[in-house]
Amino acid sequence: MNTIGKEKGVYPNSEWKLKLIRAEHSPIRKLKFSWRWINLPYWVSVHLVRHKHGIEHFVSTQRTDRTSVDRNELPQGALVNHECEANAQALINISRKRLCNCASKETRQAWQLVKDEVAKVEPELAHCMVRECLYRGYCPEMFSCKYDRTDKFQRELEEYRKESD
Fold it and tell me: How far apart are CA 147 and CA 144, in angstroms?
């Protein structure tokens, strides 16, 4: 309400909320989410902690003095717990990279779990949590998987765009 000069208003309906989220206007940064992965492979966690805007990460320690396990002996597949707090803008941005076919299958699966949970409470936001090629309408990756050249992509793009009209 503040950004449009109003003191009060009503909670937005689904159509208005989808428009606001798709436009990525600043109020979506007030929409916050928290979640936790249990027993996530360390190397998948590393993919996710690379995202830093609008998100906080809390990853279980591997410090030897805290775990009594020599962290130098731990493989990259060692399991960690990874907790996050993020705003809606961060979820959109992370989805663009982590739902992409160029991301590892395991990272895509971990992020899809987040999207599935978001869909239960904010379906309009989940609709906007898409891979980069859908977000842009084409693939900008240097080493593309070429999904954007498929009929399936075209159908998915039409569905993504249709609901924004």
Answer: 8
State which residues form the domain around 114. Answer: 12-63+71-131
- CATH (domain of 57): 3.30.1360.170
- Identify the sign of the CA torsion 8, 122, 45, 95: negative
How many angstroms separate the CA atoms of 33 and 90, rounded?
10
Model pLDDT for residues 98-131, shown as the tens digit of each residue: 999 999 999 999 999 999 999 999 999 999 999 9
Residues of the chain with pLDDT under 70: 1-6, 163-165
Q: Which residues of 72-101 are buried (b: 16+ CB within 10 A; e: fewer)?
A: eeeeeeeebebebebbbbbbbbbbbbbbbb
| Any domain includes 96 | yes
Q: Encoding tokens for residue 35? A: 């979640």
Range list of β-strands (E), the chain: 32-41, 55-59, 79-87
Q: How close are the terminal C-alpha atoms of the chain, in Å?
A: 23
Residue 38 located in a structural domain: yes
Structure tokens at 12: 């937005």
Q: Do the domain assignments include residue 143?
A: no
Total domain count for the chain? 1
pTM above 0.70, yes or no: yes
| Residue 122 resides in a domain | yes
